[in-house]
Design brief:
Elements: H1 19-24, H2 27-30, E1 35-37, E2 44-46
Antiparallel strand pairs: 1-2
Amino acid sequence: MVYERDDIEGLDSSIVTHRLTLKHSGHEETFSDPMVDCRACKHRMRADHIIDNKCDKCGSKTSLIRPF
């Protein structure tokens, strides 16, 4: 869509919403995305994306699940 239209600009950013907006909408209190790290290659991934506690990149064991 960004490349096909002249009236739209692409934005490369991690957060485009003001923090107070997220707080007042309840996202800060209720949002939870458990994550793990690979012990070998240090790749970080969501805990619900792993199978048998193994890294999807190298197959090594992952760390314990912790909140994002």
